[in-house]
């Protein structure tokens, strides 16, 4: 894997959504936040075909966008 395609696990994001919202509002909120994050991070969000764990195991990504 190229050095520029290595997944960086040092940074984390947490999205907090109120439990008392209807399910459709939770889903809608998360979708809008995800779209915003994807738009903001751009190409740096797409960093490879697999996630590589600390012990070297590789897991395919399940991203479609």
Please give a structural write-up:
- It is a single chain.
- This protein has one helix and two strands; from the N terminus they run H-E-E.
- It has about 60 residues and is α+β, with helices and mostly antiparallel strands.
- It is elongated.
- The model has no long low-confidence stretch (mean pLDDT about 75).
Q: Largest beta sheet: what is the strand line-up? A: 1-2
The global form is elongated
| Unreliable runs | none
How would you characterize the largest beta sheet? 2 strands, antiparallel
- What Rg do the Cα atoms give? 15 Å
Summed up:
With 65 residues, the chain is α+β, with helices and mostly antiparallel strands.
Set out the fold topology:
Blueprint: H1 23-41, E1 50-52, E2 58-60
Antiparallel strand pairs: 1-2
Characteristic key phrases:
29% helix; alpha+beta; 9% strand; 65 residues; 1 helix
């Amino acid at each position: 894997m190229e050095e520029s395609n290595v997944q960086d696990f040092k940074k984390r994001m947490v999205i907090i959504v109120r439990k008392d919202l209807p399910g459709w509002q939770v889903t809608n909120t998360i979708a809008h936040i995800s779209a915003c994050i994807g738009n903001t991070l751009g190409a740096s969000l797409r960093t490879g075909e697999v996630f590589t764990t600390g012990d070297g195991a590789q897991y395919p990504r399940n991203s479609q966008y």
